[in-house]
Specification:
The protein is α/β, with parallel strands linked by helices and about 325 residues long. It has helices spanning about 25-30, 35-40, 50-60, 80, 95-105, 155-165, 175-180, 200-205, 235-240, 245-260, 270-290, 295-305, and strands at about 10-15, 40-50, 65-70, 120-130, 145-150, 165-170, 185-190, 210-225, 265.
Amino acid sequence: MMLLTEIAIAETRFCVWDPIGRGGGITRIASGLQPFLLKQAVTIDVQSFADEQVAVAAFKDQQCDLALLPANVIYDMHPFVTSLSAVGGIRNLEELDLLLATLASPKAAPLFSGPTTEVAGLLPSGSIYAFLRDREAYRIEDLQGKKFAVMAYDPISAELIRRIGGSPVGATLYSFAGLFNSGSVDVAYAPALAYGPLELYKGIGETGGIVRYPWLQGFLTLVIRPDALPEGLGQALRTQVDSHRQEALALIANAEEVVPASTWIDVSAKEVTEIERSLAEIRGELKDRKIYHPKALAIMKKVRCKTRPEHAECSSSGV
């Protein structure tokens, strides 16, 4: 058996999206993979990008063979993975845990392979909530005419906002917090993890709040160019990333607990039922239009019905 010192160590550039920059938490996560990758005969040169569009462009231009990117910017490469952020697809940490465990299995590997790239890990960022500058305008009917920060490259989100009568304002994951905090938009969507680091409490102020309903799930994706890296690295990385799943879920839960209780806006059981019905209709429509990946929707429905088998959707053909 060859010793590690006898193996040629490949150095590869690792493009990382981090809105905080090189000193941010996402960059630290990426750098933390170095000991594991070294055992796989890969050493990394981590390069951070504050703008997610610049980061994904660098990866597509083959400036790097690994990248850590938001799921919504890799739709054209991996529609299955991006569809895991379908509205209403996963509702809580229990379901998220089950989904990630299911997808970490080697049996799921074909779902992560594209023509020239592979998703080698899913890092959850938690439920995406609506952050409001006016807590009195939290019902769907109250949001008509409100300005929403929407990722400029994400037509799905823009369409969803238009469906409820809102006005989408183009943004990026780098700029949306500034738009919300300055009052340029009335509503922004983000996980609880962003509340402190992006200072979203400034936009909330004394009159705003966060609607306690998980519209969708956010993910960071570890994307690789398998032909440029050791064989089998994709599954090895997925297994490695999944080994830290409970730590990630605990971090998400803690971030939600840190948000002051008075900031949350609770919705009634009746309102939840109405929201879930609307989101199910949207999922079905976007599936029919071949925007949401049917396999992703089917897997998430199985997860929801395993945790709540008595729900009406579990005896229907919907998604």
